[in-house]
Amino acid sequence: MSTPDQPLLDIRDINVVYRGARWRSPSFHALHDVSMRIGAGETVGLVGESGSGKTTLGRAVLGLAPVTSGTVTFDGRDITHARRRERRALSRDIQVVFQDPYSSLNPAMTVESILAEPLRAQGVPGSEAAARINQLLDQIGLEADAGRRYPREFSGGQRQRIAIARALALKPRLIVCDEPVSALDLSTQARILDLLIEVQEQTGVAYLFVSHDLSVVRYICHRVAVMLKGRIVETGEGDVVTSRPEHPYTKRLLMASPIPDPVRQAERRRRYAALA
């Protein structure tokens, strides 16, 4: 059980170093002593520009990036170097929603088959799986007959809903959301964010929410960490970090976001230039 002293996810002093592709090629230090905590039912945003290391941190949590040093602890258990069998068992508790809803779903499978796949992998009986699939489709706002259709028959926002349903199939306690709305238009983004908030209120799931958009993390995140060149440079409450940041880099991120007012936008550009 997660407590303030023992959070659901505890990342401590993580370093990720990729070796050079060729002999004598220099290695790449992707993460430098990164630490972060996420409590049960909490959303923590991880923001930064492309190449800052935020996706690498999410992959380290999922066991998809090599952790050179440091620890990743889930519910009091060290999963830093969990083996494949342990990772398979962990999939009940830790899931992921990827950025691109077009490539994250198998186009040759029906929605019903996509949602049944993680259930079958965990040995869930057929009748129980069918009931769970109907529950998931209702939870994400799709009709029951959507299960018989293919991903190509849905819009981008609907596909991302299906991807979220797949992540929810095993009732996880933590979902890594890797830029889950960046490929969607603004109105669809808002609907997906509202869905994630609604699901969290219903189930108590926690999110590690990776994004480059401060306005998005302001909307959904309780706390925010800002990453630059593999290091966390600022952390704090979501509304504070995304509106009154202290670190110059976070201020530049905020100033880089356009606003629909030419006068205010011109002033923002002037302030951004002064920070550069």
TrEMBL record:
GO BP terms: transmembrane transport
InterPro entries, per the entry: AAA+_ATPase, ABC_transp_ATP-bind, ABC_transporter-like_ATP-bd, ABC_transporter-like_CS, P-loop_NTPase
Keywords linked to the UniProt accession: ATP-binding, Nucleotide-binding, Transport
Domain of life: Bacteria
High-level lineage: Bacteria, Bacillati, Actinomycetota, Actinomycetes, Micromonosporales
Family stated for the protein in its record: Belongs to the ABC transporter superfamily.
Designated name of the protein: Peptide/nickel transport system ATP-binding protein
CDD domains: ABC_NikE_OppD_transporters (cd03257)
A GO term, aspect molecular function: ATP binding
Organism expressing this protein natively: Micromonospora yangpuensis
SMART domains: AAA (SM00382)
Keyword Nucleotide-binding assigned: yes
Entry keyword Ribonucleoprotein: no
ABC transporter domain location: 11-254
Gene3D superfamilies: P-loop containing nucleotide triphosphate hydrolases (3.40.50.300)
